[in-house]
Amino acid sequence: MSEVEIDREERVAILKKQEQLAQFQTFTEETAFDLGSVIFGIARAKRAPVVVNIRTSDRVLFHAAMPGATPDNDNWVRRKSNTVLRYHQSSLLFGDTLALKGREINPDMGIGLMDYAGHGGSFPVRIRKSCVVGAITVSGLPQLDDHRMIVEALGLFLKVDLPHF
Questions:
Q1: Taking the domain 8-158, which CATH number applies?
Q2: CA 161 to CA 12: how far, in whole Å?
Q3: pLDDT-derived band of residue 106, with 50, 70 and 90 as boundaries?
Q4: Domains of the chain: which residue ranges?
Q5: In whole angstroms, what is the distance from residue 81 CA to residue 91 CA?
Q6: Using one digit for the tens of pLDDT, what is the confidence trace for 112-125?
Q7: How many CA atoms does the CB half-sphere of 154 hold within 13 Å?
């Protein structure tokens, strides 16, 4: 897929609904491996040159790269997952919310572009009725496609119909 024109406010509503529906009962190292394998399978089928990463705040639980992914994708993974782990929302939702306010990531927020990114491609691992415990991240495609790959995998993995844009 490519970048699709959609009203940003409408996309924010869809992103919030995705996060509300895509929650886990439990999340273990095995869950991370199984989910990461689903995402990697989608990437392989699409021949997408991406890095797939699932992490908690203190360690990596899954990491794999497809042919064509570059070391720069690992840096994007780090920045996007930092955003999710700090703000407990997808990196795309964070970036869109800032944009609706006419803002961008800047040092006045206590964060900088070297360590955070408001671009699509990282999604929170949220335990139902609890909190965010990790981040699922894809990097290597246009930002909306990175996000879509995660949502596609979450829908399959969690057996839930997630809204799309």
A1: 3.30.450.150
A2: 18
A3: confident
A4: 8-158
A5: 7
A6: 899 999 999 999 99
A7: 29
